[in-house]
Amino acid sequence: MATFTHATPKRCAELASVLTAAGLNWSDNGRQDAPQYLTYTVTDAHGRTWSISPATNFQIPSTSSARIWQASCPELATTTPVLSASKVAEQIKATG
To answer: pLDDT value at position 1?
Structure first.
């Protein structure tokens, strides 16, 4: 079974802070207690909805433990690689 031990409260707070600082509207589903179900919903400048979730431990590169988030936008049929909080926000803003 996949594990999500890296999605700590500190990293969730960091993502929230980065999204806010980037000027993105976001919400979360409040599942920090069960990171496998944790999802952030972000709206980009064009009104498209992005979903950000923590990657599984198996997806996280051993060379960068800060890259734990993955974003997808069904409307654009795109999914980002596993990125850090700041890079996820940059990717959404650049695509939006």
So the answer is: 62
